[in-house]
Design brief:
The chain is built from 8 helices and 28 strands. It has helices at about 50-60, 130-140, 240-255, 265-275, 380-390, 440-445, 485-500, 545-555; strands at about 10, 15-20, 25, 95-100, 105, 110-120, 145-150, 190-200, 205, 215-225, 230-235, 285-290, 305-320, 330-345, 365, 375-380, 400-420, 430, 435, 455-475, 505-510, 540, 565, 575-580, 585-590, 595, 600-605, 615-625. The strands form 6 sheets. Strands 8, 9, 10, 13, 14, 15, 16, 17 and 20 form a 9-stranded antiparallel sheet that branches. Helix 2 runs parallel beside helix 8 (about 545-555) and helix 4 (about 265-275) runs parallel beside helix 7 (about 485-500).
Length: about 625
């Protein structure tokens, strides 16, 4: 609240000026006029203070009418040195007085973070100079603020994930290394660790992969690793100190290199960041997402846990080798079948889409044999390619895919379990209420074909024993089936953490609205750009980043105090608003840089008119003096 303060008043040819200490302040209407005072009848040369003036002089902690020593004058204001200064000739033209509010100390600009999620693969390396230049300008504009700049990456897994192996197959759980060089991806956002407990919950050393005859639970965890800021600006820094941070900023961006994963997951990074402990999050934050590819990753690949568990179970288990009076009999018949498989190549490419010189061998994916082939060779369908993608990975091109079927190249098997000692190979049997001549007829009816032969019988004893059952699962960060769901999750949590006005997101990407041309390995950010605060906060990656960084600066400006409670009298109007900065510079705001809402009693300052280095502002009011009645 900009406050008024009543002190003593000096009459001047232009009106009444309130003065106190070293600050000019507002004086309430005091009935100053020209000619004789209605209260005293004194002559025009030396009119006595009016009754209203006397009332004003009696208020506050200023001198009373009979005192002769006023408070110290304000800078730039003619001092009221004696009581005689309180009287003067106002002339016959009436009077106006310019009065001022006490200077208001602006609130300190709240600190904020700039969090950049920057693609650091080879295809986007050319844009780092533009990013560096834009951030350097942002540092200049941040003088007088408290600001930190962080650079995150869309790469989720690196060297620590080398130990993240499936406890069944020992296969890698995530892609953590370059398939061509074998080197781990750099600047990853997670660190993998693993713990194991026995059946009583006691921590133990994790058993070797494939060890399933022991009761234990293994839990792998991918923890988010927040990097140190690449630049830190504080409000009390000198220009030289800011320049030193500029050098660190350049070094930090350059250090990213081009060793990121080609499977970019920027939405995963944003969701990991926002799920930090509340005490680790800033008060306000600007997010900048920089990528030359859309986020097409599977949300299920944004992992936080992997768990493998082996439990003991008591169960009836069949034991083979029984020859007479067996508990169970298993019959098996054989028929000629087909060999059905897919053959395809997983094409190894770099991040620009260029094929690597060393290519992996042709892959095969086999399917259960059927009775006959429809076609010996056929093109792969969309469903077939989806199966091949499981082998190659979602971001690896698939080439030379064929569906092959060879009759007579495989065997088909038909099984039947019976408890009775009847010989199903030769004798009639009944299964689920249906009678069959023998096992061959049963297999023809259930599996198709009429060439079932080579019938075999094997006896089993059923024994009760303790066994082990194992299971595993990978737990993603959130149960999302699409990128849009990941975007909404991030936005909801960000609004809860920072408030609706405490964060801002912009994207520097490829978009069909811009004239940027795509190169191999690049794509329009159809999904990724939806994380931006608005469509206007999506900027072209192929042009100057200055507009994007200027937009970030505009958001930072909104964090400054721009509204002040101010109640004006009906006859008062704003004459001028003066802002004082840290460097003792004072500037007068233009009329278009502020507005006053009389209904709410609020003074609004355009955020662009204020700077982080501003310390205070004062408001001068114009109020015509009220003439006393003669």
């Amino acid at each position: 609240m900009i406050r008024r303060d009543l002190r003593h008043c000096r009459l001047t040819p232009s009106g009444c000026l309130a003065v106190v200490g070293t600050t000019a302040m507002l004086l309430a209407s005091s009935g100053c006029g020209s000619g004789k005072s209605a209260a005293s009848g004194s002559d025009d040369a030396h009119p006595a203070p009016s009754a209203a003036m006397t009332d004003v002089l009696a208020e506050g902690d200023g001198p009373s009418p009979d005192q002769s020593t006023p408070s110290a004058p304000a800078a730039g204001v003619t001092p009221a040195s004696t009581q005689a200064d309180l009287v003067g000739d106002l002339g016959e033209s009436g009077c106006e007085r310019v009065v001022s509010f006490e200077a208001v100390v602006l609130s300190e600009p709240p600190p904020f973070d700039v969090v950049i999620v920057a693609d650091h693969s080879g295809s986007v390396g050319w844009s780092r100079d533009e990013l560096t230049a834009g951030l350097s300008t942002l540092l200049d504009d941040a003088y007088g603020r408290d600001m930190r700049i962080f650079v995150l990456t869309p790469t989720q897994y690196g060297a620590s994930s080398a130990q993240a192996l499936d406890f069944f197959s020992s296969d890698p759980l995530v892609q953590w290394q370059d398939p061509a060089s074998g080197q781990p991806y750099q600047h990853e956002m997670t660190r993998y660790s693993e713990t194991c407990v026995d059946g009583d919950g006691t921590t133990i050393q994790c058993p070797a992969r494939g060890q399933h005859e022991q009761v234990y639970t293994a839990t792998g965890t991918w923890d988010f690793v927040m990097p140190d800021p690449i630049a830190v600006i504080t409000s009390d820094m000198t220009a030289a100190q800011v320049d030193a941070q500029r050098d660190l900023l350049v070094d930090g961006i350059t250090a990213l290199g081009e060793s990121g994963s080609p499977d970019e997951q920027p939405l995963c990074t944003l969701n990991r960041y926002i799920r930090q402990a509340p005490e680790n999050l800033p008060q306000n934050v600007i997010f900048i997402v920089l990528s030359d590819e859309d986020d097409t990753s599977d949300p299920g690949d944004c992992l936080i846990h992997y768990q493998f568990q082996t439990v003991a179970i008591d169960a009836d288990a069949p034991t083979s080798g029984c020859t007479a009076d067996c508990d169970r009999y298993r019959y098996r018949a054989t028929a000629v079948g087909t060999d059905r498989k897919l053959t395809f190549d997983c094409v190894a490419v770099d991040d620009l889409g260029n094929e690597l010189p060393e290519q992996p061998p042709t892959q095969e994916l086999h399917f259960p044999a059927t009775q006959t082939c429809k076609e010996a060779v056929a093109e792969c369908t969309t469903g077939d390619l989806a199966g091949a993608e499981i082998v190659c990975g979602s971001n690896t091109p698939i080439a030379n895919c064929q569906k092959l079927c060879t009759e007579g190249a495989a065997e088909r098997y038909c099984y039947l379990w019976l408890e009775s000692p009847v010989d199903a190979c030769t004798d009639p049997i009944e299964v689920d209420g249906i009678a069959y001549t023998n096992l061959a007829e049963y297999c023809s009816a259930t599996e198709g074909g009429d060439d079932w032969g080579d019938c075999e019988r094997e006896g089993f004893s059923i024994e009760r024993h303790t066994g082990f059952s194992s299971s595993s699962y990978r737990q993603p960060m959130l149960a999302a089936s699409s990128q849009l769901a990941m975007v909404r999750s991030f936005q909801t949590l960000a609004e809860g953490a920072f408030g609706k006005d405490g964060f801002f997101v912009e994207s520097i990407v490829f978009d069909p609205r811009f004239s940027c041309e795509l190169s191999p390995g690049q794509s329009y950010a159809t999904e990724l750009s939806t994380v931006s605060t608005s469509p206007d906060d999506v900027f072209p990656i192929c042009e100057s980043y200055a507009p994007a960084l200027a937009r970030a600066q505009q958001f930072a400006d909104t964090l400054l105090q721009t509204q002040y409670a101010l109640e004006l009298e009906p006859t008062e109007s704003i004459q001028a608003i003066t802002v004082a900065g840290r460097d003792d510079e004072q500037r007068v705001l233009a009329a278009e840089e502020y507005t006053y809402d009389a209904q709410t009693g609020t003074l609004h300052i355009d955020p662009a008119a204020l700077r982080a280095s501003d310390l205070s502002l004062s408001v001068e009011l114009l109020d015509p003096c009220v003439r006393p009645v003669k």
